[in-house]
Q: What sequence folds into this?
């Protein structure tokens, strides 16, 4: 079919008039496959896997079958980006997921599937359940090919030993050669077929990938052996063909298994949201697909079930397991009014939840979109390695030819096999694997700790920072008021009575201070409520009037009991109690700052719009290196830009968005606004600041592993190449060496999955 397309492309369509047997011409070929994928242009089908940013632009993820190495990634990405209307095409080598951004006015979705088919790959809309079946099918295919190659290798080796070591007549030797040929045929045509298939794709795209030298080596060992068998002259090397194929397949399979181990945690997020939801309609429970939920729907979640959407609990209490999202394994007690995240699991209790976000815009959908964005972006070092690998293959082919020519004049009988060894032993698979497997492993580790990198450059940038800047409110502090202390001014009032009275009053206020009293709401009923803007609130409980608010509003001229945010509760002319509320530091803030200073040796900063006195109080506890108070969003940006060294910014508010975008790398808290999360390079899903030093240590370790992998790939080739060129390595040893080098890179990257201790 490639020939048919070439004939048409050259304007030689008249060729088909002279054919005695009809064959499918290119236009028929294109129409048949276009109609095969045309259903993907249906908007209803697209709703299942396409994310639309606007009516004309969309992004979607495909699961690609047939990926064998980094060359496949290069081919697919480069070809798709040549097409008009495709703005982004990024293929993840670890999980074989292709992320595409497309202009629907310039190109149809079906045309993307057709183009992949032309390249020799099969794409399907990514579905977690289908991905598992694809992986299982690929694994079974590997095992069958390895089994055939292994059996063939063992039988051919027995024949070879008999020929080389035994004193047998030429008739029996010829019989063993024919037997070896028959045993090698399934290995050559079936077990090694993926290498030929990938090599052909590379050659058609004019890109030299790793499978080109591999396929050449197998073919160049097999064809002369067949000639020698038919002519009954010369030597046969069926054992090299079978052994070479077996070890290459085994190495690829082990590499495949290791990469799939890394990809499991990447795919697990997609499995958190259940396929169906129990919706309450007119006091009846109806089971509907989760994707059809809308805002304000009431759903019921039973013990053992996962939440299909974000929402607020309206009835019932439950212990919610959010470990798959935040990394924290202790269930969190939830009650009416509390928020629940899509994907979290109800471990006990029956609750009813009012949906606050449709599944397509839930927090977990945002996480998946940001993860896809991260996986679609490649660090600069990975791009350089991919480009270098292609050039390296060309150098290998040239060296193999020159080595063969040189040895022909020295020892013509060994020239061919030495050139074959050079062709195989220096295949740069390890160089192409060095960066992606390390980044995948470290990202998977961070995900188990509740940290998600949303940009491809995030981990390399995080490893290089030397300064860290914290926003104060909502980052170092909880971001909401809490009751710090209560000072009763009347013997008739205890702390409990004071707090439930304040809570009853503040239940009717929208002021941020009201949140501090929410845990103390009881059964007291308040009437005749009056809210005084920026001053306080008053109302009647039974026949008594109470006022709660600024001391100066209630009792002009009164002296506060100390610094801080104090409220006064009074009744008529009697002052009842002083209540101090404050936005308190997060429990692990001090631990995080000390670890950043001592373990990662970073310089620490705090920026806040709060007054200088409050900033000083915070720093008396945390002991940061630099503090800047009374900062506006604009001056925060200026502060970041004035820092001469690579800087990490950590924030949560909308006012932090500009600062986050100006920093070399940024982290957003789980409580941040959606715009802030999308701006940041990393998300801290569990709000635990103590995880940040761990992330920096892991990022630095990742860079070391990448450098080790690249160094190993280069050192291996520098050692193996001269040995092969001098004839000290045979073809089967070259196959083992190449497979081992790739496997070592993957195993070294697996060290990044270990838990980091700080």
A:
């Amino acid at each position: 079919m490639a020939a048919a397309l070439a004939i048409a492309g050259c304007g030689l369509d008249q060729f088909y008039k002279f054919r005695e047997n009809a064959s499918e011409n290119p236009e028929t070929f294109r129409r048949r496959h276009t109609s095969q994928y045309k259903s993907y242009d249906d908007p209803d089908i697209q709703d299942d896997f396409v994310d639309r940013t606007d009516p004309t632009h969309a992004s979607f993820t495909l699961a690609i079958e047939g990926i064998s190495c980094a060359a496949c990634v290069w081919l697919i990405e480069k070809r798709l980006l040549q097409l008009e209307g495709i703005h982004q095409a990024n293929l993840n080598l670890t999980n074989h997921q292709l992320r595409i951004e497309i202009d629907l006015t310039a190109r149809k979705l079906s045309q993307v599937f057709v183009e992949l088919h032309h390249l020799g790959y099969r794409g399907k809309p990514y579905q977690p359940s289908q991905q598992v079946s694809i992986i299982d099918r690929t694994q079974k295919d590997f095992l069958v090919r390895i089994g055939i190659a292994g059996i063939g290798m063992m039988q051919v080796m027995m024949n070879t030993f008999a020929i080389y070591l035994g004193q047998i007549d030429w008739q029996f030797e010829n019989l063993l050669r024919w037997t070896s040929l028959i045993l090698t045929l399934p290995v050559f045509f079936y077990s090694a077929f993926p290498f030929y298939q990938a090599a052909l794709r590379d050659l058609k795209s004019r890109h030299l990938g790793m499978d080109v030298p591999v396929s050449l080596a197998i073919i160049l060992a097999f064809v002369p052996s067949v000639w020698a068998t038919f002519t009954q002259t010369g030597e046969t090397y069926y054992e090299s063909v079978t052994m070479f194929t077996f070890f290459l397949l085994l190495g690829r399979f082990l590499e495949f298994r290791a990469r799939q181990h890394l990809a499991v945690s990447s795919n697990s997020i997609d499995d958190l949201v259940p396929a169906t939801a129990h919706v309450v309609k007119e006091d009846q429970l109806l089971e509907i697909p989760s994707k059809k939920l809308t805002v304000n729907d009431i759903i019921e979640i039973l013990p053992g079930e996962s939440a299909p959407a974000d929402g607020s609990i309206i009835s019932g209490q439950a212990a919610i397991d959010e470990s798959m999202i935040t990394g924290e394994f202790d269930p969190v007690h939830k009650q009416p009014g509390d928020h629940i995240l899509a994907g979290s699991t109800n471990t006990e209790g029956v609750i009813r939840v009012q949906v606050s976000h449709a599944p397509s815009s839930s927090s977990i959908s945002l996480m998946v979109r940001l993860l896809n964005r991260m996986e679609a972006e490649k660090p600069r070092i990975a791009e350089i390695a991919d480009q270098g690998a292609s050039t390296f293959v060309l150098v290998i082919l040239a060296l193999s030819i020159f080595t063969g020519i040189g040895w022909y004049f020295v020892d013509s009988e060994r020239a061919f096999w030495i050139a074959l060894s050079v062709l195989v032993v220096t295949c740069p698979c390890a160089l192409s694997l060095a960066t992606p497997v390390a980044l995948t492993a470290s990202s998977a580790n961070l995900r188990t700790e509740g940290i998600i990198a949303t940009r491809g450059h995030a981990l390399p940038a995080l490893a290089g920072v030397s300064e860290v800047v914290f926003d104060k409110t909502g980052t170092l502090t909880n971001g909401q008021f809490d009751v710090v202390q209560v000072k009763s001014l009347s013997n008739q009032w205890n702390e409990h009575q004071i707090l439930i009275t304040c809570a009853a009053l503040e239940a009717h206020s929208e002021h941020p201070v009201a949140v501090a009293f929410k845990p103390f709401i009881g059964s007291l009923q308040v009437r005749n409520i009056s809210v005084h803007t920026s001053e306080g609130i008053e109302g009647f409980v039974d026949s008594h009037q109470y006022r709660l608010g600024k001391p100066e509003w209630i009792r002009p001229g009164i002296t506060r009991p100390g610094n801080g945010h104090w409220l006064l509760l009074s009744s008529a002319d009697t002052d009842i109690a002083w209540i101090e509320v404050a936005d308190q530091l997060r429990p692990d803030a001090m631990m995080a700052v000390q670890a950043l200073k001592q373990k990662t040796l970073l310089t620490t900063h705090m920026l806040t719009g709060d007054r200088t006195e409050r900033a000083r109080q915070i720093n008396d506890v945390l002991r940061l290196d630099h503090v800047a108070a009374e900062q506006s969003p604009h001056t925060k940006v200026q502060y970041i830009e004035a820092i001469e060294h690579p800087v990490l910014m950590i924030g949560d508010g909308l006012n932090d968005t500009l600062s986050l975008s100006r920093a070399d790398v940024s982290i957003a808290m789980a409580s941040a606004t959606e715009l802030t999360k999308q701006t940041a390079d990393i998300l801290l899903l569990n709000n635990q600041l103590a995880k940040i030093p761990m992330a920096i240590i892991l990022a630095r370790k990742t860079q070391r592993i990448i450098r080790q992998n690249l160094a190993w790939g280069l050192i291996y080739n520098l050692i193996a190449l001269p040995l092969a060129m001098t004839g000290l390595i045979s073809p089967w040893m070259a196959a083992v060496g190449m497979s081992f080098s790739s496997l070592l890179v993957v195993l070294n990257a697996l060290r990044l999955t270990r838990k980091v201790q700080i």
About this structure: Residues 1-26 have pLDDT under 50 and may be disordered. DSSP finds 26 helices and 27 strands in the chain. The two ends are 59 Å apart (CA to CA). Residues 128-165 form the longest helix (38 residues).
